[in-house]
Amino acid sequence: MSVTVKICGITSEADALAAAEAGADAIGLMFYEGSPRHVTLEQAKAISAALPQHVMRVGVFVNAEEAFVHQALTECMLNILQFHGDETPEECSRYPVMTLKAFRVQGEETLAQLEAYPSAGYLLDAYVKDALGGTGATFNWDLAVRAQEFGKPIFLAGGLTPENVVEAVRKVQPFGVDVSSGVESEPGRKDAEQMRTFVAAAKGALA
Q1: Looking at 15, 25, 125, 178, which residue is catalytic?
Q2: Backbone angles phi, psi at 94, to 5 degrees
Q3: pTM (2 decimals)?
Q4: Which of 29, 162, 158, 34 has its CA nearest to residue 103?
């Protein structure tokens, strides 16, 4: 069974369709205003409406108000909610769809936080001071291997590229991989050829 591929930080209908054509299983819509990949509710609605039904729509939130999350969930046809801030386990449990909790991995101490969250799975990203993802930095993948012990699906993120994703998938064997800056021509603008290369590499890694 091949790895699930999520392309995060989609900001346009054209990039969303290119991701779908490349074979991505999911796209991420960033509702955090501090990100160069931020989308408004109106933009996200248009992107979601343009996508084929089989592509999962993941809403990414950072310490967002509960009412806003519910609004985005309803209006933008989201299938999964990803929480990338300081949300508590209780705050992540308030919604009627699947949730992912993202962790910026610093070391063993980060893994100790995972079990407290009732999320369907965990997304492990690189820790970069004052940045919440999309940095292009990697982390110690041995910790991602360890995180598998908690028995929930792991999405591996942080500095993945078409060049290193095969190594990452073979080492960690995660449920999914998440890429953003690694397939961009500039922040918030995806490169169709890089997306095709990334998806093919990721899905072929364990073949």
Answers
A1: 125
A2: -95, 5
A3: 0.94
A4: 158
Spatial distance between the Cα atoms of 204 and 187, rounded to a whole number of angstroms: 27
Q: Which amino acid would we find at residue 69?
A: V
The domain locations on the chain are: 4-204
Q: How far apart are CA 183 and CA 189, in angstroms?
A: 9
- Tell the CATH topology of 4-204: TIM Barrel (3.20.20)
Catalytic option among 8, 15, 92, 178: 8
CA-closest candidate to residue 99, choices 135, 63, 59:
59
8 is catalytic: yes
Instruction: Classify the phi-psi angles of 45: left when phi > 0, otherwise alpha if psi is within -120 to 50, otherwise beta.
Output: alpha
Written as tens digits, the pLDDT of the chain (207 aa) is 789 999 999 999 999 999 999 999 999 999 999 999 999 999 999 999 999 999 999 999 999 999 999 999 999 999 999 999 999 999 999 999 999 999 999 888 999 999 999 999 999 998 766 655 555 678 899 999 999 999 999 999 999 999 999 999 999 999 999 999 999 999 999 999 999 999 999 999 998
Contact 131, 180 (CB under 8 A): no
Active site residue 191: no
Task: Quote the tokens at residue 145.
Answer: 């291997």
